[in-house]
Amino acid sequence: MIPEQKRYNVTAAISQDIGESVRVFADGFYSYRNGTISGINNISATVRNTNPFFVSPVAGATQQTVLWSMVPELGPDFNPYHGESWNVVAGIEANLIGDFKATAYYAHGESEDVADRRLGVNTAALNAALADTNRATALNVFGGPNNPATLAKIRDNLFVITGRTKLDVANVQLDGSLFDLPGGAVRVALGGEYREEYTYTDLLTGQALAPRSVADSGTRNVKAVFGELFVPIVGSGNAMPFIEQLSLSIAGRYEKYSDFGSTTNPKIGLTWKPMDTLTLRGSYGTSFRAPTFTEVSTIAGGAGLYYDTLPGASGNLVGIGIAGGNPGLKPETATTWSVGGEFRPISALRLTLTYFDIDYKDQIQALRGTPGILTNPIYASFVRFNPSAADVTALINSGLPINNAINANQVQFIVDGRRQNLGRSQVRGIDFGAYANWTLGGVKFDAGVQGTYFTKYLFQALPGAAVTNVAGLINFPQKFRSQADIGAQVGIFSGRLTWNHLASYTNTTITPFQKVSNYDTFDLGVNVEVNERLRIGFDVRNLLNEDPPFVDTTRGYDAQSANPIPRMFAMTAGVKF
Length: 577
Prior knowledge:
Elements: E1 5-18, E2 22-38, E3 42-48, E4 63-69, H1 71-74, E5 78-95, E6 101-117, H2 123-131, H3 148-154, E7 158-181, E8 184-207, E9 210-234, E10 245-257, E11 261-275, E12 278-289, H4 293-296, E13 304-312, E14 315-323, E15 332-346, E16 349-366, E17 383-385, H5 389-396, E18 413-416, E19 419-440, E20 443-460, E21 467-469, E22 480-490, E23 493-502, E24 505-507, E25 514-516, E26 519-529, E27 534-541, E28 568-575
Parallel strand pairs: 14-18
Antiparallel strand pairs: 1-2, 2-5, 3-4, 5-6, 6-7, 7-8, 8-9, 9-10, 10-11, 11-12, 12-15, 13-14, 15-16, 16-19, 17-18, 19-20, 20-21, 20-22, 22-23, 23-26, 24-25, 26-27, 27-28
């Protein structure tokens, strides 16, 4: 469930003032990790009576399905992996005329991840050995022994994937006051950015003596300009009853992508303070997300061809499912607005409440594995029944990775299950928070609670599909989640206890549906400020060693909502030079 892993991380930062007006700075990190993942060690093998080792479960049986463990004869399948990443940032900050300040920085980062599976199952060799009628070379899954050459052919399947990325960012910003109004200073912030992204993926598959290599790479550059204008309409100089402060913020960002066109995203915010203890806010904005390289790559992230068995209108059908990225994707977009406020009845207590509304369009969805994809007419444009032999051959020879053996003579359908711009989500909810601080007997305390409640989470899988409220269903956000903490500090010692709460939800992947229970964990952290340069921290995650709630799925828990790692201890040391 949890692979063995080692991690090494180093971070550093430096800052130097040059006179009274200039500061130069730099920071960076390096990270390396490696480990092993357990691969496929058990196979569900269907043995027919033509196999010389066939054992009939009942009189007259012609086949039997056996769960066969490869470990006794082939050993466990452990797949090593490693990842390495680093990033450096260097910049300069300068005070200009008045309170104007300019900042410029350049950042460069790289990463490499390698998953190295060299002992995978060769499905074609497995099926051939099960169908073999020769006692000397056929596979015996009823207790062996087996021919070493037969076993070697079965354990001969490479899957080595290497991914590399590079990121360069150059950014310059200018901000300061333009002029004064009775309500305060009108401030402006302007900037520009150039970002260049590079990715490379190499997939090595097939047999050890005849591997197939498929590589894919891409480069993207993004040019952006952005700005924000802050206008204090009412302030201390012209306050009036029920309008102590009133300010307007107008911001915008223009981006031009080398591969996805351009986008302009505005944001408008209004802040009103009717009295000293109450602040009200409202905002409106749009956003844009271009597809990642993985989402458009034809070989990354489990992409390729799969020989699938799916339920059709009158029984199971076999065919080819195409999975992975789609070079024809377009960006996702969203429109967001919110209203909320902050109430401070006393200086030591702060209460917040925000209502939000998000309309998220053109969500990127993968269709392979979608229930009812062969029978529901809304998926008809992604399914081709009874393809010609020429079409099947062309697809198999297209260069896409072949993830399991395909019988080209028995392909009854082709499903384009690649990622598509199909989904739409309309989300409404409430964010809340309460925060307090006090001193008692020389000890400083602070406490807080914050959470999110979704009043509605409407989801449409693709145009024409039903719109359903999925809040509180598996694979979607739970209706409610919260976090509460309390901290204390006395002298050089400080500590914090945190309670993480995830509300119950419904597992709709089984029939009847399952109610998944709440998930509550506690974390504890203690810090010691030894001196101005040295800080030592002790942390305990999942203090009470809570198991994740049982979810009736293959893993037995929901990896999207719960962490299977038991109580974990960590010690950190921070050093300033």
